Amino acid sequence: MAAIPRVVEQAADRLDPRGTTRRRLLAGTGLASASLAATALLSACAKDTKDSADAIGNFPKTPDWKFVFVNHVTTNPFFTATQYGAADACKLLGCSYQWTGSQNSVVAEMVNATNTAISGKADGLAIAVVDKAAFKTPVDQALDAGIPVVSYNADGARDDPGTSRLAYVGQGLYESGYALGQRALTQVQSGEVVGFIATPGQLNIQPRIDGAQQAFKDAGGAVRFTAVATNADVTKGLSIVDAYAQGHSGLAGMLAVDAGSTQAVGQTVKKYGLRGKGLKVAGGFDLIPETLASIKSGDLDYTIDQQPYLQGFLPVLYLYLFKISGGLLSPAQTNTGLLFVTKDKVGTYQDNQTRYEGSSTDVKLVDRSGAIAHQ
After folding, report:
1. pLDDT at res. 232
2. What Cα–Cα distance (Å) separates residue 165 from each residue in 26, 36, 110, 122, 154?
């Protein structure tokens, strides 16, 4: 018997790997030649591929769902990783997203963007609820229209989300601020400590400054803590931090509760050599490159990683699962965590430029080895 072309064997295995069909095809029975057998089988395989492309993974075929993210600082570099997370989840699940809101934390602009998404019949909403009162009515309207809503990054006040959103995806904000203060207290027990906040009152960062202040208060009050407003604009914020440092010599600590202010603290500490002038502790939040460089140089002691990538990826996943299950899979409350990044750990972030921290557009596997840190 002549050798059977490999393509025919592969095609036969695809159609019927064990049964009668495979035997007939390999014997040429009912077909004029092996080439015709291959043609028939490859045609069947092409149809199979087309059918499977209609669904993602083991999920059913879905409409072209589009989810809308409403953000308070749409161009802030912190949210680069968040947008990568949303994009990657959409690529995985076969849907799309829109990034909208306000560039400068203008709540009215965010509400308008939310209302536009509702009137445009968005398939799901993810909202940074930086004002507990402003989003109550829009969220109710979305839910009444059958549009699922989750919050991310900010979730109203500490004990009052202010909306009927289905779940929150983000850091425990008050708790992270309290941890920031507690960490500082391991290095400073008295003197003046300043805490910078870009937008006082906005509920993505106000709970943090409240938590930090409470940590110092609970320690007995030997540290005099002052909260100072900077600005959502990073350049303006830097000038405010710089001026404060010049006007308050002998600071024992400089902290910040947002990405821009943290970057500014590191730059100011370096500019004026504050480590040699009595500054005992400096720290803040988030993973922008300038902040990581300041930790490496020792101008900042630490920053807090709150997993911004997950704050984009998980809302898309939760909204998608809600839609495909007809609401049976309701979104889950998710704390994206609190990890202190210090000088001994910062190299891992700097050496691995990835989408997960927003430092690279590349889609790649990040290899690791060795033990996983634990307590």
Report:
1. 84
2. 60, 59, 16, 15, 12
How confident is the model over 244-280, as pLDDT tens digits? Answer: 999 999 999 999 999 999 999 999 999 999 999 999 9
Given a cut of 70, is residue 38 above it in pLDDT?
A: no
In the numeric block, which tokens belong to residue 50?
């087309």
Distance (Å, whole) CA 352 – CA 350: 6
CA distance 237 to 197: 9
Structure tokens at 101: 């809101």
Q: How confident is the model at residue 288 (pLDDT cuts 50, 70, 90)?
A: confident
Please name the residues in contact with 134: beta carbons below 8 A apart, sequence gap of 6 or more: 107, 108, 110, 111
Question: Residue 23: left if φ>0, alpha if ψ -120 to 50, beta else—which one?
Answer: alpha
- CB-based contacts of 246: which residues, under 8 Å, 6+ apart? 272
Instruction: List the Cα angle 278/280/284 in 5-degree steps.
Output: 130
In whole angstroms, what is the distance from residue 88 CA to residue 94 CA? 10
Q: Where is mean pLDDT largest: 17-21, 138-142, 345-349?
A: 138-142
Residue 224 vs residue 357, higher pLDDT? 224
- Give the integer Cα–Cα distance in Å for 158 and 211: 10
Residue with tokens 């799901």: 124
Let me know: does 313 contact 86? Beta carbons within 8 Å. yes
Q: In this structure, what token pair is assigned to residue 125?
A: 């909403």
Number of DSSP helices (H) and strands (E) in the chain, helices first: 13, 12
Structure tokens at 268: 């100011």
- pLDDT band at residue 353, thresholds of 50, 70 and 90? confident
189, 222 in Cβ contact below 8 A? yes
Closest of 172, 162, 105 to residue 139, by C-alpha: 162
- For residues 137 and 73, give the distance between their C-alpha atoms in angstroms, rounded to a whole number: 22
Across 38-54, average pLDDT: 43
pTM attached to this predicted model? 0.80
331 touches 167 (CB < 8 A): yes
Beta bridge partners, 157, equal 160
Full DSSP string of 16-67: -SSSHHHHHHHHTTTSS-HHHHHHHHHHHHHHHHHHHHTS-TTSPP----EE
d(CA 187, CA 216): 12
